[in-house]
Amino acid sequence: MRSAIIRSAAFWTALVTFAATNGSALAQKKYDTGATDTEIKIGHIVPYSGPASAYGVIGKTEEAYFKMVNENGGINGRKIKFVSYDDAYSPPKAVEQVRKLVESDEVLVVFNPLGTPSNSAIQKYLNAKKVPQLFVATGATKWNDPKHFPWTIGWQPSYQSEGLIYAKYLMKEKPDAKIAVFYQNDDFGKDYLKGLKDGFGAKASAIIAEESYEISEPTIDNHIVKLKASGADVLISITTPKFAAQTIKKMAEIDWKALQIVANVSASVGSVIKPAGFENAQGLLSAAYAKDAADPQWKDDAGMKNFFALLDKYYPEADRLNSSVVYGYGAAQTLTRILEMCGDDLTRANIMKQAANLKDFTPDTLLPGVRINTSATDFAPIEQLQMMRFKGEKWDLFGDVISGEAATN
Fold first, then answer.
1. DSSP string, 59-81
2. For the segment 82-113, what is each residue's pLDDT rounded down to a tens digit?
3. Which residues lie closer than 8 Å to 406 by C-beta, 6 or more apart?
């Protein structure tokens, strides 16, 4: 009788242990398409070709970062499979490639897709499919709209916030400025323009000339000549790298001595300033939220040591002067943090929940004082910038880190 009781007790103990163990496993491990016990499949699009191909290094840097993560054991034991396609900065191509990522490759998320036009084209599709459009590589304000687009979240500062900062700077330092604005004729350019005008407010009449260009144009020389003829003494260049370099070079060729402000997305020493000629970029202004790898002040910085170590081992051919390489590292590190926070709940809903729960996260490559913060009602992770001036062969930061929050539409 006693042995029967012991056997019965052992049976129930084993049963309870089995149930607890499996219940715990079931509670902990939750997967959506694109995630398993061993793998997390990440989708990505970027222009490796076309008019914005200078940004292609972002994808290559992110690929290198995930190689490092995988060699170090992955994320919670799972390896990253990074599937990256070329969309050539073409919205129809972006739609085609994203559909392929979601429906054929069956990725868990679409991470860091680049460009305002491309992201605008895929936003409704991804939200309808409830696939995270995670940390988009564009600063359009509309990515911060969790009410209408709960599956889309930005990463970098908004273009409107940056435009506001430039307007405030000019009103203080050059109150009598006659301003010309040169902008890309799409949502990217128009978002910056709105930020500028909002920043100037009643003094928006300081903008005496506006000129737009199409990304299909081989050269923008005629636009710059026309803007010089306006009599403006400040040019705000809201351009992507190819056209930013052309603008800097053309202004020098026609001896237009106006103060030039270039958008952060085209402040790269490697892909913009160097091709335009260092001698032509002296005194150029912009704003930054990330460290400049060309600046010797960061050579002993712990975060930048990690950055350079990654390049040494996983992407040695990278141009260290290219700010897009720094960008790709920071975005990849942020995604890695989110996936770590997800633990064994790798559902798309939990990924968005964690992406909206970042508190003072500081990737290695962000400037001191710049932190990533998000909430369920704030999908704008980075909202701080610092002004900088180009001198010699590098950018010099000046002033304080400025927080700017643009209102969503």
1. HHHHHHHHHHHHHTT-BTTBEEE
2. 999 999 999 999 999 999 999 999 999 999 99
3. 141, 158, 160, 161, 164, 195, 198
- Same domain, yes or no, for 106 and 230? no
Q: Beta strands 285-288 and 384-391: pairing type? A: antiparallel
Whether residues 167 and 103 share a domain: the answer is no
The number of domains in the chain is 3
Residue recorded with tokens 């390896």: 79
What range defines the domain where residue 187 resides? 160-288+389-403
CA distances from residue 106 to 99, 223, 347 in whole angstroms, order as listed: 9, 44, 13
Q: What stretches of 137-223 adopt beta strand conformation (E)?
A: 152-153, 179-184, 207-213
Distance CA 83, CA 354 (A): 22
CA distance 242 to 258: 20
Q: What are phi and psi of 276, to 5 degrees?
A: -80, -20
What is the C-alpha to C-alpha distance for residues 183 and 193, in angstroms, rounded to an integer?
8
The answer to whether position 384 is within a domain reads no
* CB-based burial label for 248 (10 Å; 0-12, 13-18, 19+): buried
Residue at 152: amino acid letter: T
> What distance in Å separates the CA atoms of residue 277 and residue 252, rounded to the nearest whole number?
10
Residue 198 Rama label (left phi>0; alpha psi -120 to 50; beta): alpha
My answer on whether 144 and 190 are in the same domain is no
With a pLDDT cut of 90, the percent of the chain lying above it is: 87
Which is higher by pLDDT, 294 or 49? Answer: 49
